[in-house]
Specification:
Blueprint: H1 3-16, E1 22-31, E2 41-44, E3 49-51, H2 56-67, E4 80-85, E5 97-105, H3 110-117, E6 122-127, H4 131-141, E7 145-151, E8 166-169, E9 185-188, H5 193-210, E10 215-218, H6 222-234, H7 239-242, E11 245-246, H8 259-282
Parallel strand pairs: 6-7, 6-9, 7-8, 9-10, 10-11
Antiparallel strand pairs: 1-2, 1-5, 2-3, 4-5
Helix pairs in contact: 4-8
């Protein structure tokens, strides 16, 4: 689960706990090829399930086991670990191992669960409220990002804005770069090349001073970036510093120019980049 989907599942879980108990099934750790990553969860009630741990026979058996724990005898026992090998016996050929934890939960645990299960979000700053910006904001709102959407113009943001998205008006627009959350991943696609250049320049200056913007992506063609390189070099940025800018943005191989297509390509690239950042942060070896 990710993005607003996780928020929705958590809200549903906490609401349902007001009237009935559940068993929380958490993927505690994994080995090899598995359907979902550690931290994924579902809540099993007597007559329904909130969330998913990957579907298939793994989930079917987990639901059955969890429903067997909806008994007073299990209250207060804490999390019970279960190791599941994903092989022919389960009808799943992933070949990995999933370590699950089954934990009876009640309304009395709501505050703890709200803190524990709230999805972690990486900060993303999107500069530009044009057609692609609108499409991209819709896509990113459903992913594990805390999105701040910035434009220098009034009246460009939709009403309502996508759930969880923060909109900011900044004129001049590049001033907003100084207020971005540390670790922000920046996407630049304003209505003018002049604004784009100023935002890129401000990002590079902040990166020079603080080194806390892990990704700076600029929409446009290779010829646009070639022109920008010359102008940024004239502003004093070195070739090494300019390597920090990704342009054009979007994963390779997607040639469509429609806003929705560009949005998907950019979101996919952002998931790749942030996945690498998370792996580096946890000491995991990147594939």
């Amino acid at each position: 689960m990710s993005g607003s989907g996780m928020d929705s599942h958590l809200h549903t879980l906490l609401k349902r706990l007001e009237s009935e108990a559940a068993v929380l099934v958490m993927v505690a750790s994994t080995q090899g090829s598995v359907p979902r990553e550690a931290g994924t969860w579902m809540a099993v009630f007597a007559g329904s399930v909130v969330g998913t741990i990957g579907g298939g026979h793994l989930e079917y058996e987990a639901v059955e086991r969890a429903r067997g724990m909806l008994l007073p005898a299990y209250d207060g026992l804490g999390a019970i670990p279960v190791r599941v090998a994903l092989g022919p016996s389960l009808g799943q050929c992933c070949g990995g191992v999933v370590h699950l934890e089954f934990e009876p939960v009640t309304q009395a645990m709501s505050a703890v669960l709200a803190e524990r299960l709230r999805p972690a979000r990486l900060p993303v700053a999107l500069f530009g409220g044009g057609h692609v910006g609108h499409a991209l904001a819709q896509v990113l709102a459903g992913l594990p990002f805390a999105l701040t959407w910035i434009d220098s113009r009034d009246g460009v943001f939709p009403d309502p804005v996508p759930e969880g998205v923060i909109c900011e008006h900044s004129d001049p627009v590049q001033v907003a770069v100084g207020d971005l959350a540390p670790g922000s991943h920046v996407l630049i696609m304003s209505f003018s090349h002049a604004e784009d250049l100023d935002v890129v320049s401000a990002c590079l200056q902040r990166q020079r001073e603080k080194g806390d913007l892990p990704f700076v992506g600029l929409i446009g063609s290779r010829s646009k970036w070639a022109t920008f390189r010359q102008r940024l070099e004239a502003r004093g940025f070195t070739a090494a510093e300019l390597l920090h800018v990704t342009s054009p943005i979007g994963i390779p191989g997607i040639s469509g120019k429609e806003p929705a297509v560009i949005a998907v390509a950019v979101a996919a690239q952002l998931l790749q980049v942030t996945g690498e950042v998370r792996a580096l942060g946890t000491g995991k070896r990147l594939a």
